[in-house]
Design goal:
Elements (H helix, E strand, L loop, with lengths): L2 H9 L8 H9 L4 E4 L6 H11 L3 E5 L3 H13 L4 E4 L5 H13 L4 E4 L7 H7 L4 E6 L21 H5 L5 E5 L4 H10 L7 E3 L7 E7 L3 H11 L3 E5 L3 H13 L4 E4 L5 H12 L5 E4 L12 E6 L6 H8 L9 E7 L1 H13 L4 H14 L11 E3 L2 H7 L4 H13 L3 E4 L7 E4 L3 H10 L4 H10 L8 E2 L2 H8 L3 H13 L3 E4 L6 E4 L13 H23 L4 H8 L12 H29 L2 E2 H7 L5 H13 L3 E4 L2 E4 L1
Parallel strand pairs: 1-6, 1-7, 2-4, 2-5, 3-4, 5-6, 8-13, 9-11, 9-12, 10-11, 12-13
Antiparallel strand pairs: 14-19, 15-19, 16-17, 16-18, 20-22, 21-22
Helix pairs in contact: 2-3, 5-6, 14-16, 19-20, 23-25
């Protein structure tokens, strides 16, 4: 099939969006390609279409587990085989998924970058017929970027396994420095960038200085018709602000990555179909969600960088109609960000202490634990060792940077199971153990494909079908696992820690201070750019475009700064016009104040009186008794 036929068959679109076709042709010609497409520009089509046009499998690297899972589901709905390998999956489960990539009909393998550190995964990729390596959120490979992820540096190792396969790097936001770095780190054979201007003419960027942010959130929702997104910093706040909107008669839902997958999908669908007007979310929301008619995006607090802000604000107005991107800001926000900045960079002794406590928490012996993935109850861990949660998370990130462990913040993984015996052996077990027969029959009837792959199950549904309670279902599945009849992976939404190296003695840990100092300088620079955007009275669109290396952009004319300038200019013009008319009237005759106001045709009554007052102050006109005359 041609790429146009693929687009029509699987996406039901007749035409590609701007730049998509050029990027796809570049990939099909075997060129390493860096594509910068704004949020909503259709990045996934740029790797999915060429991968379907060629024989073999496409490996997609993405840091966003929720997005990976959504894309895999969407591809499966289109009849395209896709699998994802993420933290929290057991070794056996990964084994089966990788086998299907080598011997089955799988067209897309989605991996988190941490998975590339696994020898098992790399060894199996060697035997796959790879047609493309797609790197989503490619700015994460650059430590000058806003979301540097050390495991991204290992993506280039795939080039050693498949040297002739092109790499397609995709991102919505990257400065010139980051663009250069991406190509270098991914070992591009020659520079090749497709870049759309970052200008969004239909978005009005607004910064509102707000002491009472809740009041502003309500005012904006009442003042702008249509659906909106409100971004907040914490999961707790998502629920609180959604509740606040609902109490004030505005239908809102909350969303974050810790929610169960089915619930997340339901909330997304309600919002996409306008059953819910506003979604209040952490920055986990929005990736891969293409809702064209979002009329406003509000950031309750300053974002961590202008890259993140541009990406999130850009979810508004994808239908090219008028939309508003509103940042609520007050001076105390700077103090909060400064405090967060300090907590983001723990000292080297603090990082080593977290490592030591973590190993003790898991009761891990020295020189043991390599390859082990374990759930981390962050609240329990911090309270047991009296640690600050923010500092602890950042210590884990620096330990990840030096490749002692990898840390994934929590994401929901549903329960799943797979039969470990053949059909015939299962039948024999049912005959020999008739008490188990109804339970196993219900499993077989409810979930197809469980002999080949792990399939999702919901304990609640199974309990209803078997007239058991949920705990009895869980116990039953665990017992069948003990009998080696099936393998059962219970749902989890805990963060995960994977030990990349055996436990070291603390004095043998090497923490790269230079890298930490560089990260600190980059973080500071990005933080100051956000403050400058919020505090300077300069066209917001111009400021964003200059940040992304488009320094000569025109003023947008629609942001709050441009509109204020226009209002002042108009006020000045009206003042001049009213002055001319007053001077002309008083040149012919003296007049009392009331007559002068009614005789002046230009402007509102308030503007006329204000102009007369200014002319009196300047001595250009004066009172002669009751009458006004030229001064």
């Amino acid at each position: 099939m041609t790429i146009q036929q693929i687009l029509k068959q699987y996406w039901n679109h007749d035409d590609f969006r701007p730049m998509q076709e050029e990027i796809i042709q570049s990939v099909l010609l075997g060129h390493d390609t860096l594509a910068l497409l704004p949020t909503g520009g259709g990045k996934s089509v740029c790797f999915q279409v060429p991968a379907l046009a060629k024989e073999g499998i496409c490996i997609v690297i993405s840091p966003l587990i929720a997005l990976m899972k959504d894309q895999v589901e969407n591809l499966k709905e289109k009849g395209i085989e896709a699998v994802s390998i993420v933290s929290g999956m057991g070794k056996h489960e990964i084994d089966i998924a990788l086998d299907n990539c080598i011997y089955g009909q799988v067209k897309f393998l989605y991996l988190s970058p941490e998975r590339l550190l696994s020898e098992l995964v790399r060894e199996r990729i060697k035997y796959m017929k790879v047609n493309l390596i797609a790197v989503d959120e490619a700015h994460c490979i650059s430590q000058w970027g806003y979301n540097f992820r050390p495991p991204y540096l290992h993506i280039a190792d795939l080039r050693d396994l498949h040297p002739d396969v092109p790499v397609l790097a995709l991102t919505a936001t990257a400065t010139a420095e980051v663009r250069e770095d991406i190509q270098q780190k991914l070992r591009f054979r020659k520079p090749n960038i497709f870049k759309k201007s970052f200008e969004r003419k239909n978005i009005s960027y607004v910064v509102q200085n707000a002491e009472n942010k809740l009041r502003k959130l309500l005012d904006i929702a009442k003042g702008i018709k249509g659906s909106g997104i409100v971004y907040v910093r914490s999961r707790k706040e998502t629920a609180e602000i959604a509740k606040f909107y609902n109490e004030n008669g505005i239908k809102a839902e909350y969303y974050h990555a810790g929610l169960e997958a089915g619930l997340r999908s339901q909330k997304q669908e309600n919002w996409k179909n306008n059953r819910t007007r506003i979604i209040v979310a952490t920055n986990a929301f929005g990736m891969g969600i293409d809702k064209p008619d979002v009329r406003f995006v509000i950031h309750k607090d300053p974002p961590e960088s202008l890259e993140a802000y541009y990406q999130e604000a850009g979810r508004g107005g994808r239908d090219e109609k008028k939309a508003y991107a509103v940042l609520l800001y007050n001076p105390s926000d700077r103090l909060k960000q400064e405090k967060k900045f300090e907590l983001s960079f723990p000292s080297i002794p603090e990082i080593k202490q977290v490592y030591h406590f973590l190993a003790n928490y898991y009761q891990l012996a020295y020189e043991a634990g390599e390859g082990l993935s374990l759930d981390l109850d962050l609240g329990d861990f911090c309270s047991r060792f009296k640690l600050d949660a923010v500092k602890t998370i950042n210590s884990l990130k620096f330990l990840e940077q030096d490749e002692y462990l990898s840390f994934n913040e929590s994401v929901f993984l549903p329960s799943r199971f797979r039969f470990e015996v053949l059909n015939e052996q299962l039948y024999n077990f049912q005959i020999q153990n008739p008490g188990w027969d109804p339970f196993i029959k219900t499993l077989l009837r409810s979930y197809g494909g469980a002999f080949e792959n792990y399939v999702r199950l919901r304990e609640f549904d199974l309990a209803r079908r078997t007239n058991m309670n949920v705990q009895q279902v869980i116990d039953g599945l665990k017992q069948l696992q003990d009998f080696k009849i099936l393998n059962y992976q219970q749902q989890t939404d805990m963060p995960q820690v994977t030990w990349l190296k055996p436990r070291q003695h603390v004095n043998a840990l090497y923490i790269n201070k230079k890298a930490i100092d560089e990260r600190k300088a980059t973080y500071r620079k990005k933080m100051e750019a956000v403050f400058a955007y919020a505090e300077h009275k300069k066209c917001h669109s111009q400021m964003l475009l200059a940040y992304f290396d488009e320094p000569n952009a025109d003023k947008c004319g629609v942001c709050d700064v441009c509109l204020e300038e226009k209002r002042k200019r108009n006020a000045s013009e009206i003042f001049d016009d009213i002055t001319s008319e007053i001077v002309q009237l008083l040149g012919n005759t003296s007049m009392d104040l009331a007559s002068l106001v009614t005789s002046t045709n230009i402007g509102t009554e308030k503007e006329k009186i204000e102009t007369i007052r200014l002319l009196l102050d300047a001595g250009k006109i004066k009172f002669a008794g009751e009458k006004l005359v030229i001064g």
